[in-house]
Design goal:
Phosphorylase Kinase, domain 1, alpha+beta, Aminoglycoside 3'-phosphotransferase, Chain: A, domain 2, five-stranded antiparallel beta sheet, three-stranded antiparallel beta sheet, homodimer
């Protein structure tokens, strides 16, 4: 196995060695209470990519230890993967924590030699994607994630800060090449060409997939967003903000797993979340039961689509109104009384651009989950292949419309109205 | 004086110490021939920003030693400036040399401690701006600079190479913050707001300048290009490619002074050169004599505008046809026979975007040279303030049209036809 990079001190932790490691950190020791020997440690990760240990102290306090493994275990074989992703994850958390502290886990410690983060244990939370499959409603999540992206992106953009701070960040995250490579290949290229890594529900979707790979206009649009992804360093983005990177309880939301972080287009995070809400919508018939046909739940999802965009937009504009201390669109150029309106209209135009980006990136994220390498359990858990294929075909139709006819989607209402129209099967 | 950064070994060279320094480099020694004591050294720089020494060997060979000074001397006082600009200049040269070797000076050596570059001596060349003021014609220069920008930008973009190479470059040049700060302030902000650094031909242009600073639509357009400058890392750009950064003989062209280099929008280099050709056009009446009214020369300049864009465009497309090995718009997504046309049309659309960027950035560069801090000798050498002000007002009118009504300029022919129309005074 190729080991891309490990520090000489790197060693894989286990339930026996975790207490000694975190016991050496005074803050952690105080938090868990009692001697390290008294702590209970369980490994709860799936072991594909990271080790995840839950450590509990005697008095009920707990925390989570996440260590990167130097490979990704997929389909029985292993794919070497840089440990440095743990560093970028920790760097992202610490860059955005001042702005979105309540919406990420509390980070207690990052160890550069072990590529290991000690963080708050979210034992009451579940992965949003699981909740969406189960048909559960989380009244705050869409608004929270909208606010999250607004805050994390606004404050790391040139609207909020002197550009030098962004350039400092860019210099750091420009090294996160291995994970960006995954996105470039798996999101923007492979789905649109032949690749041994691609798969789809077959033979049901064979024709639809062939049609997609033959749709030159669609591919140019996808390539356009691939180019934007590589060129447009608007802000620090999470880079993988789908419903599997959001943990929820009834009232609480946390964004996790930002190892794909880099300076990129804000619309990429918006699109990841939107696209995965839409995938969930299209997957719902596959999760219908006699007790619940999921039609009401689909309505709820579309309400979340609207709440998500409205929350992002209004939060971003509100932050901008109060914190325009950066070099992009500087207020010092617009100081006459009437120019309040000028600024407002320029800001609205910028948000319109983000809206269009959200739809384009969202569509790319949807397509790759149906015809690319890594699929989503929203569809994979639908055991009846006929039903699954119908759900997937509808989602693909929506994604293709978003990419091919962007002019038809001028508002979030246009999107919401189109979603059921594309469920023709 | 604040010294931002100097290595402990940094010392300011002089004509006495240069021979010992370069004499220690075998390649240089062989090139100049004879013992270092026999070399003739002259300091020829203006001492404002860099020291420039010409060193001649006994047999007529020569080279140039350029050392950065830790300040910029302006208007009698001094402005501390990072020595690291010499590093970025050397890094830029070495990044683009494989692609534009014949169009930059040959670089023999860069010394990281002395912030000093040893390079080919261009003693037969003069600065293009000087030639334009003198009314001299250089048949190749526009085509050469067009080809230069095409090659330097194409090969450092994601069209030519795996994106990882661009990210490596971005990590390096993201540290060139002090020079990028100068551009952000002096090109995109100060001209459009009150600043002690601004000046203009007064009182002649007072009214025009007040009108410009009150033109909200124009300022939003300028701010839009300022944002693009900060966000759009398309390729490694020179960052200051005006007619003072080009050296010429009758048949030879060299691009110099790339210390503002960073990963940014390709249109920024295009606009710098175009904008300065247009400034030259508008300045010509100020250099007219009884023997030469410069009308014919103005025609020649407009021919160069066309040749420049045509050369850039055709070279960029030709390179793309042969070297599309990158991750942006990958050919592997467009392999069916009919998709040759698809790719061609997508590439043309990208070039149309660069054209629009060139006009916008060009206009910003023109405006800042008339109402901002650093002016150009094309105008400053016009001693009659009335004549100078008329020339400047015309150039400003053109720049404002380019920024405010981009829809009126769909081709380089549209630009060429508009130029004389704006010379109403």
């Amino acid at each position: 196995m190729r080991r891309v990079d490990t520090s000489p001190a790197y060693r894989i932790l286990d339930t026996d060695t975790v207490p000694a490691f975190i016991g050496s950190l005074p803050e952690i020791r105080a938090l868990l209470g009692g001697p390290p020997e008294s702590w209970l440690v369980h490994e709860v990760g799936d072991g594909n990519l990271n080790l995840v240990f839950i450590v509990r102290g005697l008095e009920g306090s707990s925390l989570c230890v996440k260590q990167a493994l130097p490979y990704l275990r997929v389909a029985g074989s292993s794919w070497p993967m840089t440990l440095e992703r743990a560093f970028f994850e920790a760097s992202y958390y610490s860059a955005v924590a001042p702005y979105v502290g309540g919406l990420i886990p509390t980070i207690y410690h990052y160890d550069r030699e072990l590529y290991c983060t000690v963080m708050e244990c979210l034992s009451a939370h579940i992965i949003l994607r699981q909740g969406l499959i189960a048909g559960r409603r989380y009244p705050n999540v869409a608004r929270d994630v909208g606010e999250y992206i607004a805050r994390a992106s606004f404050f790391t953009s040139d609207f909020a800060r002197p550009f030098e701070q962004k350039m400092d960040g860019i210099a750091v995250f420009a090294r996160n090449k291995e994970l960006v490579r995954i996105t470039v290949d798996l999101v923007f290229c492979d789905p649109y060409r032949s690749s041994a890594r691609n798969h789809h529900t077959s033979p049901h979707l064979d024709e639809v997939v062939a049609e997609l790979r033959g749709d030159s206009r669609l591919k140019v649009a996808a390539a356009h967003f691939g180019m934007k992804f590589l060129n447009e360093a608007q802000a620090l983005v999470h880079g993988d903000l789908h419903s599997g990177s959001v943990m929820v309880t009834e009232g609480n939301t946390r964004v996790i797993d930002p190892e794909f972080a880099f300076y990129g287009p804000i619309g990429f995070d918006l699109g990841a979340f939107l696209g995965n809400l839409l995938l969930s919508w299209y997957s719902q018939p596959g999760h219908a039961t006699e007790q619940d046909n999921r039609v009401g739940y689909q309505h709820w999802i579309l309400e979340q689509v609207e709440a998500f965009w409205d929350s992002f937009r209004s939060n971003f504009l509100a932050l901008w109104a109060e914190n325009a201390h950066g070099d992009a669109l500087p207020t010092s150029m617009f100081t006459r009384p009437t120019e309040t309106l000028t600024l407002e209209s320029a800001r609205n135009a910028f948000l319109d651009g983000l809206f269009a980006d959200m739809l384009g990136f969202g569509a790319c994220k949807m397509i790759r989950r149906i015809v690319g390498f890594a699929h989503v359990i929203d569809f994979d858990r639908i055991h009846d292949a006929d039903v699954r294929a119908r759900c997937e075909a509808n989602a693909l139709a929506m994604a293709r419309a978003l990419l091919s006819y962007p002019g038809q989607f001028c508002s979030i209402q246009d999107v919401i109205e189109a979603v059921p129209r594309m469920a023709r099967h």
